[in-house]
Amino acid sequence: MTRRKDWDTYFMDIAYMASTRSQCGRRHVGAVLVQGKKLLGTAYNGAPSGVPDCSEAGCMLVEEYELVDTASGEQVIKKQRCIRTIHAEQNLLLFTDREDREGSSVYVTDQPCWTCANMLANSGIVEIVYHRAYPKDSEKVSALMAQKGLTFRRMAEYEPPSGTLAEVKN
């Protein structure tokens, strides 16, 4: 007899299945909105509907610089990001209702970036569960979640369903 999956695994599996719709060459991300045990919405990262995506038109990369305090003093960090793509978390917020988000949880394949974390923190959700770490914004995002009082947890031991894990390119 096979063992039934726990709810965290079940919902993270669905987030990974949603990520398979992404056409981003850098990272496939899926997100799921859940209230209790009820699935309320899914989303993935990609270009706006009806617009060529990165696989068709290429990434629109921009460079950003951030001043970071380190043990050896301030350091300038260079980041690249694609501005053609709407993040999975942003799409999830665009396509779900505020009243559905109140008190809900978001399962996302990857730890949210700073912008998505800000949006989620203001969306009415109470919990973010993620699998893969996103080191570029990790400390800032964790601090924001603690400050906001949101549950923020990583499923580090989780194994995605076969065929859903795309290579991550930074």
Automatic annotation (TrEMBL):
Keywords: Hydrolase, Metal-binding, Zinc. Zn(2+) binds at residues 87, 113, 116. CDD domains: deoxycytidylate_deaminase (cd01286). It holds the Pfam family dCMP_cyt_deam_1. Its cofactor is Zn(2+). InterPro entries: APOBEC/CMP_deaminase_Zn-bd, CMP_dCMP_dom, Cytidine_deaminase-like, dCMP_deaminase, dCMP_deaminase-rel, Deoxycytidylate_deaminase_dom. Signal peptide: none annotated. Residues 6-152 form the CMP/dCMP-type deaminase domain. The active site is at 89 (proton donor). GO terms for biological process: pyrimidine nucleotide metabolic process. GO terms for cellular component: cytoplasm. It comes from the Bacteria. GO terms for molecular function: dCMP deaminase activity; zinc ion binding. Belongs to the cytidine and deoxycytidylate deaminase family. PANTHER family: DEOXYCYTIDYLATE DEAMINASE, DEOXYCYTIDYLATE DEAMINASE-RELATED. This is CMP deaminase.
